[in-house]
Amino acid sequence: xxxxxxxxxxxxxxxxTGYTEIDVFGTQVFVPGDADRDGDVDINDFxxxxxxFSKVPSSPGLDGDIVVDNIVDVRDFRLxxxxxxxxxxxxxxxxxxxxxxxxxxTVISFTAVAxxxxxxx
Length: 121
What we know:
Blueprint: H1 43-51, H2 74-83, H3 86-92, H4 100-120
């Protein structure tokens, strides 16, 4: 067998009988938010997550379990939501994020209603 300085295999390795198998170990890396493992984050990933929500996947990391914690839950949805393009997220509905001013007005309103009810009692 020919021995090359750049070859990782030596001429006498394995008694010159050759290799029948080479195993590679590691973790396959996927796009964050890609529930169906097709290389992109799109509406199909959302459908997979919603169809399997609160279920145990057939195998960890499948059926919408993108966090790989053996359950399809809000953590998987959040990862998808944070990774998807805004136009795609808008296609399935608005994800309202209250503005600080409107949030403050809501808190003040609830406080006022609670005080009025206490005085009425």
